[in-house]
Amino acid sequence: MGEMQAMFRLLTALALWVTLSTGSKIVIQSSPDYLLQDLTRTLTIRCSLMDTDAPSGQVGRRAAGDLTETQLDVQSVTAISVVRNSQAEPVANLTSQPSAAVPLTDFTSLKVHGSLGKNHVSSPNSEHAFLEMQWAHPGRNQTGGYTCFIHAVDAQGQSVVFSTSAEIAQEFPSSDDMLGHISQLEKTVESLEERLKAVESSTGLLKAPHAEEGMVECVDSDSWNQDPYGNNGRYVFHTVKFQTPYDRPPMVSLGIDLLDESSDAYLRVHTDIDNLTKDGFTVRCGTWADTYIFKVRVRWVSVVA
Ligand SMILES: *[C@@H]1O[C@H](CO)[C@@H](O)[C@H](O)[C@H]1NC(C)=O
Ligand SMILES: *[C@@H]1O[C@H](CO)[C@@H](O)[C@H](O)[C@H]1NC(C)=O
Ligand SMILES: *[C@@H]1O[C@H](CO)[C@@H](O)[C@H](O)[C@H]1NC(C)=O
């Protein structure tokens, strides 16, 4: 009976250990899987160390001798590096000192980023660390075998190096690929045309801006209205209506174009704008004291504000 109980306890403990224990696994993914010559616009390769919750019971080793999976969860990831082809051309590195992902080749087209993750943090099926490489307009130079190495330290302080590879091939596009590409381009052009039309109509960018001009003459200051504030102030209003109303009140500027007055007194004249709306405005001409104005001609220009 005692033996049975001990056995049961052992089994329970084992089951618990198996359930709680997590492992680590290196994964390399590329998008797309292969390049279509001159058609593929971006190539993304991401190498990750995943926390797993279902230990395979075996340390994963592939024919090439890569360590791909362990039953032990890693404590920390110290570096990720990616090399290309049999010459092991360095492609990108991510280290903790300095803590940054750097491209080591294809400098004009390759952008890289990544993270070594946090120590001790382990949640099953989540990514512990990664290095992602993205090429713009990939071509033959980006084809070949990519091998990713992830340097890590396990809970016992042992260093572990995971590695795995992916092969990027380039294919000549089939006529289906080309037709698909053309139809995609046509859709893009159509949607750009629609957006352009919307921009044109909303901003009126391609039309000349709405501008108008005209003139107003104020004659014979003896016939003008008397200004109630004294000093023989006199003024007259002239209403201007725009040929086409603006969407909102425009900017208007005035300039005196001609001035004819009596030489018996000092020259005194002022002109200004009143009640400016999108439909028009009022010009006020004024003088004061003993000045006599035969005629003041005011030229105006309005433009969209
Ligand atoms: C990239 O990382 C690998 C492995 O850690 C290292 O051997 C190599 O020297 C590094 N290269 C550069 C340029 O930092
Ligand atoms: C491919 O690589 C070679 C050698 O590094 C280089 O001279 C050439 O410019 C590259 N081609 C492209 C399209 O980047
Ligand atoms: C300006 O508008 C106000 C309010 O509508 C009006 O009372 C005033 O007479 C107007 N002035 C002129 C010069 O038209």
SS-based structural class?
A: alpha+beta
Number of helices: 2
| Termini Cα gap | 96 Å
Any ligands, ions or cofactors bound here, and which?
Answer: 2-acetamido-2-deoxy-beta-D-glucopyranose
Spell out the CATH superfamily of the largest domain. Immunoglobulins
Spell the H/E element sequence.
HEEEEEEEEEEEEEHEEEEEEE
Largest sheet: 6 strands, antiparallel
Number-wise, the strands total 20
Overall CATH architecture of the largest domain: Sandwich
- Topology-level CATH name of the largest domain: Immunoglobulin-like
- What is the C-level CATH assignment of the largest domain? Mainly Beta
Low-confidence stretches: 13-21
Keywords: Coiled coil, Signal
GO molecular function, one term: N-acetylgalactosamine binding
Organism: Elysia chlorotica
Domain H-type lectin: 239-302
Supply the key terms.
305 residues, Immunoglobulin-like, 2 domains, 2 helices
Protein model, in words:
InterPro entries: Galactose-binding_lectin, H-type_lectin_dom_sf, H-type_lectin_domain. The chain is α+β, with helices and mostly antiparallel strands. It folds into two domains: 18-172, Immunoglobulins (Immunoglobulin-like), CATH 2.60.40; 211-303, Immunoglobulin-like (Sandwich), CATH 2.60.40. 16% of the residues lie in helices and 48% in strands. The chain is built from two helices and 20 strands. The chain has helices at 2-20, 175-203; strands at residues 23-31, 35-36, 42-52, 60-61, 67-70, 74-84, 89-96, 99-103, 110-115, 127-136, 144-154, 159-168, 170-171, 211-219, 225-226, 234-241, 251-261, 270-274, 280-287, 293-303. It has a six-stranded antiparallel sheet with strand order 4-5-1-3-10-9, with no helix packed on it. A hairpin with a 2-residue loop joins β7 (89-96) and β8 (99-103). It starts with a helix and ends with a strand. One 2-acetamido-2-deoxy-beta-D-glucopyranose binds next to loops. One 2-acetamido-2-deoxy-beta-D-glucopyranose (NAG) binds at residues 79, 81, 90, 93, 104.
